[in-house]
Design goal:
It is a single chain. The radius of gyration is 21 Å and the shape is globular. The strands form two sheets. A seven-stranded parallel β-sheet has the order 3-2-1-4-5-6-7. About 45% of the residues are buried. It has helices spanning about 25-35, 50-60, 75-90, 125-130, 135-165, 175-180, 220-230, 245-250, 260-270, 285-295, 305-310, 320-335, 340-350, 355-370, and strands at about 10-15, 40-45, 65, 105, 115-120, 165-170, 190, 210-215, 235, 255, 275, 300, 315-320. Helix 10 crosses helix 13. Helix content is about 40%, strand content about 15%. It starts with 10 loop residues before the first strand and ends with a helix. The protein is built from 14 helices and 13 strands. Helix 2 (about 50-60) links the parallel strand 2 and strand 3. It folds into two domains: about 5-195 and about 355-370, 3-Layer(aba) Sandwich (Rossmann fold); about 210-350, Rossmann fold, CATH 3.40.50. By secondary structure, the protein is α/β, with parallel strands linked by helices.
């Protein structure tokens, strides 16, 4: 919309949800910001960000901008809920935003302002449905009552944001279909990026045999339970364990590691026989793509985001039901699969590398510049 006068270059402003860490929903904005700094000045704007994220952005040459909003909660999911409610009720977050010259990319559900591009990662109510299991019991009770009102507000704000954005870009075809249900015209799909320089094959000499999975808000725990009951030894990672069924936490074939660093995660993926990823709802799915980047095929469902990223029979296996997924997990545990699948996994993951996805964003930005 406006051109920056500094050195004759365009400034890219990216809005994102509260930045308390550098994983999960925060990663797309962080990785795209990093890639865009190669050609543009970039500022990353959020209602709140941790000191470590602030320092990281500075070190990457990205200008960090925080509204300094204080939240009642500390856990990232609850902070996100609080930020979203503040916005849909009284526009408390967007009131703090002041538009500056440059191109505005909005990666947020919690700062709803007119933008050149709105990058959508999934409706807020879908996220709320996913994380309700980790809410305190009083929040779950309140959410059950308030869900119809939340859905109405979400639909209203999605349509408003879409009208106020020159372009709407979705993180997957499945994600795009979710917004089309709200009568939103999605202009394009650009997948979520990963860092393939960080996630890469790193094999040890260990002969330990295991499958790996993630314990999180999207996990379908019943499938993990059944696979473990069939004798599949599974290592799990993920820090939010309060809502994991107790029988899984104490299962003899399940090793619960909790939080692991990215370096430890790369080793877990790389040395696993396969990654098993049963989910309840997943707009894109970082786990399958990270696993492929480390050369490990993925067993998951043949729909939603993971159904788009995994190539059945080449980089993993796509099941149509929980029963089929458990049977495949048992068969894979007992039999070998072609070793060339690991190389195909790595090649497939490169389609989602931040460098490649960054080029797609550069094309979008060039189109915006040409149309100004």
């Amino acid at each position: 919309m406006f051109r920056s006068q500094r050195c004759g270059t365009m400034t890219i402003h990216i809005l994102t949800d509260p930045l308390l860490n550098d994983f999960g929903p925060a990663r797309p904005a962080l990785l795209i910001s990093r890639e865009l700094t190669k050609k543009y000045e970039v500022s990353l704007i959020s209602t709140s960000m941790s000191a470590s994220i602030y320092r990281k952005l500075k070190s990457l040459g990205i200008k960090p901008v925080s509204f300094g909003v204080r939240f009642l909660f500390r856990e990232s999911s609850l902070v996100w809920i609080e930020a979203w409610i503040k916005e849909i009720s009284l526009s408390l977050n967007s009131r703090k935003f002041k538009r500056e010259e440059g191109i505005l990319l909005n990666f947020s559900n919690t700062i709803m302002v007119p933008s050149d591009v709105w990058f959508v990662l999934g409706p807020a109510t879908s996220a709320l449905d996913n994380i309700r299991g980790e809410m305190p019991w009083n929040f779950r009770s309140a959410y059950k009552v308030l869900r119809p009102a939340f859905f109405y507000a979400d639909r209203k704000n999605i349509r408003l944001m879409a009208r106020n954005s020159d372009m709407v870009i979705a993180a997957s075809n499945y994600c795009a279909s979710q917004y089309r249900k709200f009568s939103v015209r999605v202009n394009d799909v650009i997948y979520v990026p990963i860092d393939c320089e960080e996630f890469k094959p790193l094999c040890d000499d260990s002969s330990e045999k295991y499958a790996v999975t993630y314990f999180g808000k999207e996990t379908k725990f019943s499938a993990i339970q059944k696979a473990a009951d069939k004798g599949v030894k599974i290592k799990t990672f993920g820090s939010k364990l309060s809502y994991v069924p107790r029988n899984l936490l104490n299962h003899p074939n399940v090793e619960v590691l909790g939080y692991v660093s990215d370096e430890e995660l790369v080793r877990l993926y790389s040395n696993a026989l396969f990654t098993i990823f049963p989910f309840t709802n997943e707009e894109f799915g970082y786990i399958p793509v990270e696993s492929m980047a480390c050369g490990t095929p993925v067993l998951t469902y043949a729909f939603q985001g993971p159904g788009e990223t995994i190539i059945n029979g080449e980089t993993g296996w796509l099941a149509k039901s929980e029963g089929e997924l458990v049977k495949l997990a048992t068969d894979l545990w007992r039999k070998e699969y072609p070793s060339e699948m690991r190389e195909k996994c790595r090649q497939r993951a490169l389609d989602f590398d931040a460098k490649k996805i960054g080029q797609e964003w550069l094309k979008i930005i060039k189109t915006i510049e040409e149309n100004q």
